[in-house]
Specification:
Elements (H helix, E strand, L loop, with lengths): L1 H33 L5 H15 L5 H8 L11 H20 L6 H16 L23 H37 L1 H6 L2 H44 L24 H17 L2 H10 L5 H20 L6 H16 L6 H31 L4
Amino acid sequence: MLLTLVLLVVLFALVFEFINGFHDTANSIATVVATKVLSPGQAVILAASMNLIGAFLGTAVAKTISSGLIDTDVVVVTSQVLICALLGAIAWNLITWWRGLPSSSSHALIGGLCGAALSAAHNDWAALIWSKAGSGDWTTNKGLLWKVFLPMVSSPFAGFMLGVLILTLLYAIIALMFRAGGPLARAARPRWVNAFFGKAQIVSAAYMGMAHGTNDAQKTMGIIALAIFGAQATGQLDNLPGWLAFLHPDGGEQDIDTWIIVTCALVMAAGTAAGGWRIIKTLGHKMVKLHPIDGFAAETASATILVTAAHFGMPVSTTHSISTAIMGVGFAKNPRALKITVIERIVWAWILTIPAAGGLAYAFFKLVEMLGWS
């Protein structure tokens, strides 16, 4: 029975990874579709392949999820806790996907994990690691403050400012080319600028897909690793049949097994290939009208934020970074071009995601306790 629960955690985690893939497909390809540089089908193939590559480029975010947010000395992170955490995240992801809201799968998972752990700890808030100093510089710190809330506030702001900065810089370069006269002035004409950035945006879209894989794929890796570490500590993996021998951790609790990385990468790529066209409509069309140069600036800004965060083990939101980068690009073009009502809906989805997913996971675990399955 206990082994079955561990396998259920793996199954639910992979379901979440698949949903994360199609839920967040829009985040990495909305701009390249909106600017008509690639067709939706071409963009999905590009995003899926780059997601797959990105998932293999490090495990710092996975380690944050597996050991940096929940204090296992206060609450035992059982398979039931993890299943309820995943159910809360999946439920919120599906609700926001159905409504066409680009909410954060990352924060849904973190909210679900915190809500389920808090429920299992009988409302003992010490179960959540708020802030814990690391052994080296500040980048090794653990806890919700350093790894979740600080980047949750700073990454959207950074995405906005970087979007403004990159587009302003590109416009300045084009203006200098136009003033230079001759061949440079001809190259600065709108037709040639659109043609150049139409090709350049394929590169920036690939960069965005890779960055998405480096961050989002790792979150589910962390959940599966957490389940495996817990099962190993409680003896649930003793005397496994030969066909399940791969479940034994390859190393200590700081290592993410190769099979976990490969499986999560493939499932996220498959989910990305399934697509998420409702959210593409919101991100790519409703917030601001985009041209290829705008899409290039937004994707480059967002991907840079994601890659930087992944390096420091911060599970930031792809949705937040690309949405605010698009807002920054729109602001740089014309502050009046932004559609405030659409932005308000997105911001409310951001604010609600962690408590909503956490509340759902909390309720799921209480139901599990009531039914005697805990």
